[in-house]
Amino acid sequence: MTIDERRRAVGSRIAATRSERGMSLSELARRAGIGKGSLSEIESGRRNPTLDTLYAIAGPLGVPLTALLGEEAGTEGSGDHLRARVLHVEHHPDGATTEVVWLTVLPGATRVSPAHGPGVTEYILVVQGELTAGPVGAESTAASGDSITWRSDVEHSYRSGDEPVHAVLTIRSPGT
């Protein structure tokens, strides 16, 4: 899939999900904290959203990130502070979703993520480097081989030191 095709596919998924939720473009833009014009350009495939923007949009829509980014293994997204590559997405019979992502947090970066939907839990296994992550104000630090788990239905952060951090992030969203 070309970059243009991927951008249009992401925009189509956002527009379709917004429509399914009965939400106007203006309402989603307001809830996501982005400009209405920017959201319109993203939905039409004229603008490439960052990972940060996709997270901001996914929250108000009540969907996992991969519902917008795409669920195919190898699908990538990036932002100012991190890169993510989808490894696997599993939909469970009870409606729950498990997303497994290879995460790279760039050196010296701090990424604050908005709250995800109710009951969403994140598990992160640090493969290389040292990561401080978790709910804002209650973060934990993990080095290579260590893991951190937290409820991500609150604002949370990822922070690296002077070296990049490579980790496997598993996000479990409960069924509705």
Describe the overall structure.
This protein is an alpha+beta fold. The protein has helices at 3-20, 25-32, 36-43, 51-61, 65-69; strands at 76-78, 82-91, 97-105, 110-113, 121-128, 130-135, 140-143, 147-151, 156-160, 165-173. A six-stranded antiparallel beta sheet has the order 1-2-3-10-5-8, with no helix packed on it. Strands 4-9-6-7 form a four-stranded antiparallel beta sheet. 32% of the residues are buried.
What's the short story on this structure?
One of its GO terms (cellular component) is cytosol. Pfam families: Cupin_2, HTH_3. The chain has helices at residues 3-20, 25-32, 36-43, 51-61, 65-69; strands at 76-78, 82-91, 97-105, 110-113, 121-128, 130-135, 140-143, 147-151, 156-160, 165-173.
The counted number of beta strands is 10
Going by CATH, the homologous superfamily of the largest domain would be Jelly Rolls
The total count of helices amounts to 5
> What is the top-level CATH class of the largest domain?
Mainly Beta
**What is the correct CATH architecture of the largest domain?**
Sandwich
Largest beta sheet: strand ordering: 1-2-3-10-5-8
What structural class is derived from the secondary structure elements? alpha+beta
Query: Helix proportion of residues, in percent?
Result: 25-40%
Percent in strands: 35-45%
Order of helices and strands: HHHHHEEEEEEEEEE
Q: Spans with pLDDT under 50 lasting ≥5 residues?
A: none
Shape: globular
Average pLDDT: 93
Query: Any idea what the radius of gyration is?
Result: 16 Å
Biggest β-sheet description:
6 strands, antiparallel
- CATH T-level topology of the largest domain: Jelly Rolls
